[in-house]
C-alpha cells in the first residue's frame, strides 16, 4: 500500500518538479537543460506584464473572496427565512451556477455584456455627452463573474454549517435577553466562523486559479493564468516556470505559517486546560 | 431559527438575500437568457449575431456529434479511472497512515493545485513528448511510441488534474470508518477481500459518489486539457463551443451548442445520480 | 538597362510580374527591375538618407503598447530598442489565424494598439468599422512608392490606406529531409503521404485559409474556392487525413524542432528560421499552387494608445530596423529600401524568393474566405471530427 501511495505522490509531483527544475534552466527551451541559472527569476520580476498580471490576479481574487463570502453568508442566513417557490427558485439557481461549465458561463457572460454595453454606451453618450463613462470588459466584469460562481459555493458551505448549528444555543441567548443582533454577533457568527473562513479561502483559490472565465471576460486586462496561457502560445520560456515556482513557494510558506499559528493556539489551549 | 422570520420581517430578509439575488440575476440569469435568445438567431454575414428566429442551429447540432460523443465517452471513463486511482490512495490515508502524518500527507496532495493548471498541463506535454517518456522507452528498446496529442494523453491529463478532488471526498467518508469494525470482521474469519467488500466499501460509497459526481461535472465542461494535450485533434463539447466563438464566429450556433451542452449535462447528472445513488442505496446527499 | 533611379510604376510592376511568371525574364531581372533585389543598392544610395529616428521625450507615448502578431514574427532586439528609445513597454500577444483576431476584435474591448492582419482581411475589417484609415503623416518611414503596388493593393480602400505592409511571403510546407525519404514537391504528395508512410508525423495549421486551401489544391481547385462541391471534396480529404495528423496547430516550430513532426504546412519565414538551425529542413511550394500573401501593420479603432502605435509602426518600417527584422524572422520585405540593407544571401535564398514557376501558381487569399460561413463550418467540423 505504501508503495502505491508513494507512486501516486510521484505522479502528482512529477510535473511540479519539472516546472521548478526548469525554472533554473539557463537555456531558453524546456527539456533542453543548458546549465543552472536564476536569471529567469530576475527577468520575471522585471517583466512589467508578468508582474501586472500577478497583481491583477491578486486584486481580483481578494475582491472576489471578500464579496462572495459576505454576500454569500448573508444570503445563506437570509435564505433560511425564505419559503415556497422563491426558495426553490433560489436553490435551483445555486445548483445551476455550480453545474454550468465555466466555458459556458464565460462565453455567456461575454456575449451578454457585449450586447448590453453596445446598447447602453450610446445611450449614456447621448445622455451625458463626452464625459460619459464607457462600459467595457475589464476587472469589474471578471470580479463579477467570479463572485457569481463562488457565491453558490459559499451559500452551500455556510448553509450546511448552519443546518448543523445547535438551535438551543440561540434560544438560550435570546432567553438571556440578548438582542437579535447581539445573538448574531456573539453566538451565530463564531459558530459559523470555520465555514466562513473555508469559504473565503476557497473563493480566493478558485478566483486566483481561474483561467476559463477570465479568458473570456477580462477584456484587455490580464490575470496570471491568462498571462501564462499567452506565454505558452508565444513560446514558453523558463520565465513562466519561475513565476509558477514563486507562486507555489509563497502558498507553501503561507500554509506552513498557518500551521504554526494554529498549532500554537492549540498548544496554548491545551496548556490552559491542563493548568 | 424558526422564530427569526417574524423578527425584522420581510425587510431584513430582502436585505440579506438581495445582493445575492442581484448577482444571480445579472450574472447568471441574464447571460443564460441571452444565450438562449441567440441560439435562435442567425449568423451575421461576417460573424456574430443577427436577430432572427429559427431552429436551424439546433437542427445542425448533429454536425458536432463527434464532439458530443467524445465528451460523453471520455468524461465517464476519466471519472472512473480517477476513482479507481484515487480510492487506494484515500484508503491508505484514512486507514493505514498514522494519524501523526495524516494532515501533512493530505495537504501534500492539494499543494500541486497551487501551481497554475496551465503550467502543470504543459509539463505533461513535455513528459509525454518525444524527449520524455518515449525517449526512455526507446532506451529499453520500445520504439515508435507516440503519447502526446492522443486520447491517452487527454485521459492522463484528466486523471491528473482531478485526482485530489476525488481523493478528498473518499477520504472523508472512509475516515469515519471505525477501525474496530475491520478488526472484528477479521476476528470473525472474513478474508480481507470480504472485509473490504462488505465493511469498507459500503461506508465509502457516499464519498465515491460525491467525488465522482463533482469530477464528472467538471470533466464534461473541460476544454483546456483536450486543447493542450490533444494537439487540436481531440475535441470535447467545450472545444467545439470555444471554436464556434473564436474561429467560426458563429454566435447563434455556438449558443445552441452551449444550451445543448447544459441540457446534456443536466440529463447525465440525473441519470448518474439515479444510477450511482440507487446502487449505493443512499439518500440524495447535497453536493457539498 | 532600365533606369534604376526612378521607382517603378504599379503598371510596370504588374507587367514585369506577368513577364516573370510567364518565364520571359529571369528572377534576377525581375528583382532588379522592380527594385526588389540587389540592384536597389544603387537605388538605396541615390535616395535621400535614411530618415533619422525621431527622439521621444520620456513618458510622451505612455508606458504600454499592446502588439498582436503571429508566432516567431519579430526580432525581440528591435522591440527592446523601441522600449529603450521611448520608454514604452511592449506587450506581445500571439495568434495563429486571422479568424481568431477578427473574433476578438468583434467581441470588442481587446485593448490592442497594433495588430498584424493579412491582406485578404483588410476589406472586412474596414467594412465592419474595426479599423480606421491611417494618418500617414505620422508614419514618415512609409513611402508608398517604394513598396510594390501589387502587395499594397488590398490595403487601399477608397483612396485611403488602412494598413501598411510589413512583409510578404508564401505558404508551403517544410519537410525534414533527414528523416523523410524521397523528394516531395506537390500537395498531392503531402496529403497522400500523410495517409501513408508519414502517418502521425504531419501538422496542419489551425487556420481555415491554409488548411482548407491546401486541401483544395490537392484536387487542383482554387485555393480560395467557396464552391460547395469543391469544398465538399476538400472536407472529405481533411476528415480522412485527420487521424493521421500529428496536430492541428499554427505554432508548428516547436514540434518540428523537437522532431515530433516531420512535415508541416508552413510559412516562408518559419522555413527560413528552421533551416538556419536544422539544415535538413526543406521548404516546398506545392507545384499545384498555394498562397502568396502580404501582412500589414494596422491600428484597431479605439486603440488605447494610438500615439505609441504610430510611433511603433513608424519605427518598425525604418529600413535599418526592418532589415534587422527580415534577418531575424526570414520573411521577405515589400520595401525596396529595406531590401537594400539585407544581405545578399537572403535575397538569393529561394525560400524567400521562390522560383518563378512556383510563384506564378500562387494565389492571394480572397476576402470571401474570411466571411464565408461554409469554410468556417468545414474547418470546425474537421476539428470536431
Helix percentage of chain A: over 70%
- Gap between N and C termini of chain A, in Å? 42 Å
Largest sheet of chain B: 2 strands, antiparallel
Output the structural class of chain B.
Answer: mainly alpha
Largest interface: A-B, 80 and 86 residues
Please trace the helix and strand order of chain A, writing H or E for each element: HHHHHHHHHHH
Low-confidence stretches of chain B: 1-6, 281-288
Radius of gyration of chain A (CA) equals 24 Å
**What's the shape of chain A?**
globular
Q: What are the segments of chain A in which pLDDT stays under 50 over at least 5 consecutive residues?
A: 269-275
Average pLDDT rating of chain A: 83
Helix and strand pattern of chain B: HEEHHHHHHHHHHH
Describe the protein.
The complex is a heterotrimer of chains A (275), B (288) and C (385). With 275 residues, chain A is mainly alpha-helical. Chain A contains 11 helices and no strands. Chain A has helices at residues 2-22, 39-46, 48-79, 84-99, 102-128, 139-163, 167-175, 180-209, 212-217, 224-234, 238-274. The longest helix of chain A is centred in the C-terminal third of the chain and has 37 residues, at 238-274. Chain B has 288 residues and is mainly α. Chain B has a single domain, classed as MetI-like fold (Orthogonal Bundle). Helices cover 72% and strands 1% of the residues of chain B. Chain B is built from 12 helices and 2 strands. Chain B has helices spanning 9-39, 56-59, 65-96, 99-110, 117-128, 133-139, 151-175, 179-187, 192-220, 224-229, 237-246, 251-280; strands spanning 42-43, 49-50. A two-stranded antiparallel sheet of chain B has the order 1-2. In chain B, helix 3 packs across helix 9 (192-220), helix 7 crosses helix 9 (192-220) and helix 9 (192-220) runs antiparallel to helix 12. Chain B is globular. With 385 residues, chain C is of the alpha/beta class. Chain C folds into 2 domains: 10-168 and 293-347, D-Maltodextrin-Binding Protein, domain 2; 169-292 and 354-384, Periplasmic binding protein-like II (D-Maltodextrin-Binding Protein, domain 2). Helices cover 42% and strands 15% of the residues of chain C. Chain C is built from 19 helices and 12 strands. In chain C, helix 1 packs antiparallel against helix 2 (27-34) and helix 9 (208-218) packs across helix 10 (228-241). Mean pLDDT of chain C is 85; it is low at 1-5 and 43-51. Chains A and B meet through helix 1, helix 3, helix 4, helix 5 and helix 6 of A and helix 1, helix 3, helix 4, helix 5 and helix 7 of B.
